[in-house]
């Protein structure tokens, strides 16, 4: 049961950790760069084909 819960919560914790680390590093938030990453990952995850 714990493994099932972990597999659900792990991606959320990873995304939160990346966001926290990014905020703490002081790296500028370029919206075009982030939008491109989100679209490429989302397209791949939801079966939209290969990203270009």
Overview of the molecule:
With 52 residues, this protein is mostly helical. Helix content is 75%, strand content 0%. The chain is built from 2 helices and no strands. It starts with a helix and ends in a 7-residue tail after the last helix. The relative contact order is 0.08. The mean pLDDT is 84.
Element layout with pairings:
Layout: H1 2-25, H2 31-45
Number of helices: 2
- The N- and C-terminal alpha carbons lie at a distance of 39 Å
Over the alpha carbons, how many angstroms does the gyration radius reach? 14 Å
- Which structural category fits the helices and strands? mainly alpha
> What proportion of the residues form beta strands (DSSP E)?
under 5%
Name the features.
single chain; 52 residues; mainly alpha
Short structural summary:
The protein is mostly helical. The protein has helices at 2-25, 31-45. It contains 2 helices and no strands.
């Amino acid at each position: 049961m714990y493994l099932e819960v972990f597999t659900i919560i792990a991606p959320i914790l990873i995304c939160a950790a990346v966001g926290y680390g990014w905020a703490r590093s002081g790296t500028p938030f370029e919206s075009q760069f982030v939008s491109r990453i989100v679209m490429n990952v989302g397209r791949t995850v939801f079966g939209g084909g290969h990203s270009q």
